[in-house]
Design brief:
The chain is of the alpha+beta class and about 350 residues long. The chain has one domain. Helices cover about 50% and strands about 15% of the residues. The strands form three sheets. Strands 3-9-8-6-5 form a five-stranded antiparallel sheet. The two termini are about 35 Å apart.
Length: about 350
């Protein structure tokens, strides 16, 4: 037993030393990013640092319009990154008994005010005022949700539901070497332009146009740190504690309205399950500064620096302009429309409901 304790202690020491020596890293679009350059730390840390999942390889890719919905899901086991539905059911146009009461208690006590704080102009917006008044005037949570999901309130609905989260997003810089990897495809297209115009893709011409591709391309990074609002967590815990018997009974019933109750009881029964109360994610944004793609200047440079005939130089310049613009509107939009979740975190406070 003594030897076992010594081995265990030694192993923990080694892991601790490794954690201090090595910085974590991830790959996005096959480009490596170290935690240090993204968030200034050696680890991809979140607001809550307990029960964190491993970093997936590849990362968990989510659409920009949907990635926030991963807060409030749960993992069946603390070591996995696979998620199951729970509090995120709020985004569906369907009534879920118990969850509706939790959500609207939060919206009415804090959520609406958070929306106004983030979007001050809505304080006097008639549509927003109508939405708030309609919901406050209704006592039934199912009818409240019907109001929230009225098509005319779509944009406001997204803001109200997002009030359940705390969002902290910070930009991080990306060095030119990494930008060059993102422009590799653009440079290949430029080579094709030279070939199509019967211009030998010699080193000087290629270097000039490659430099243009790098200088006009801007790639920025955003580090997202998202968590459940602490007051929402408090409302959730208090409600579950006060209504656990009713929830257990409803979990045995049939019908989609009891889905939240069923999922909650399954979560509570699983020994190592945890609720994803927060996560950290990386997002990249790319754009091309079209003001730097001046056909006249490029044409003049091709003539003066590389002795390319005027007509051919103008043709190349025009093709370069179109190619750069298409690369931004097609390639960049397709590539940078996702958010990559690095890892999930789970608060020990939420796990306390398992004792009920």
């Amino acid at each position: 037993m003594k030897n076992l304790l010594v081995i265990l202690f030694s192993t923990l020491c080694i892991l601790s030393v490794q954690a201090q020596l090595f910085t974590e890293s991830v790959k996005v679009f096959d480009v490596k990013f170290n935690a240090k350059e993204v968030n200034g730390q050696k680890r991809f840390s979140g607001v809550e640092d307990g029960f964190y999942s491993k970093i997936r390889k590849p990362l968990i890719e989510k659409k920009e319009s949907e990635y926030l919905n991963n807060v409030g899901t749960y993992r069946s086991n603390v070591v996995t990154s696979e998620v199951r539905n729970l509090l995120d059911l709020a985004v569906l146009n369907k009534h879920f008994k118990h969850l509706g009461t939790i959500d609207f208690e939060f919206y009415e006590s804090k959520g609406f005010d958070k929306v106004i704080t983030e979007y001050p102009g809505l304080q006097h917006d008639k549509l927003f005022i109508d939405l708030v008044n309609e919901i406050r005037a209704e006592s039934n949570s199912k009818k409240k949700k019907d109001i929230l999901f009225n098509p005319k309130y779509r944009d406001l609905r997204l803001k109200v539901i997002a009030s359940r989260y705390e969002q902290n997003s910070k930009p991080f810089s990306i060095d030119k070497k990494k930008v060059s990897k993102f422009t590799a495809e653009l440079k290949a297209k430029v080579d094709t332009i030279l070939i199509n115009n019967n211009i030998k893709a010699n080193g000087d011409v290629r270097a000039y146009l490659s430099k243009l591709a790098d200088e006009t391309t801007s790639i920025t990074g955003i580090y997202h740190n998202v968590s459940l609002d602490k007051d929402y967590v408090g409302i959730f815990k208090n409600y579950i504690s006060d209504n656990i018997d009713s929830i257990r009974n409803d979990a045995l019933k049939n019908g989609s309205e009891y889905r939240f109750a069923k999922n909650l009881i399954v979560y509570m029964k699983l020994t190592n399950s945890v609720i994803n109360s927060s996560f950290v994610a990386i997002q990249l944004k790319g754009d091309i500064d079209k003001t730097k793609i001046n056909i006249t200047n490029i044409t003049a440079d091709l003539q003066a620096k590389f002795d390319i005939p005027a007509e051919k130089a103008a043709s190349v310049s025009a093709s370069v302009e179109v190619t750069f613009e298409q690369h931004e509107t097609i390639e960049f939009i397709n590539e940078f429309s996702s958010v990559f979740i690095v890892r999930y975190f789970s608060s020990s406070k939420l796990n306390e409901i398992k004792k009920l």
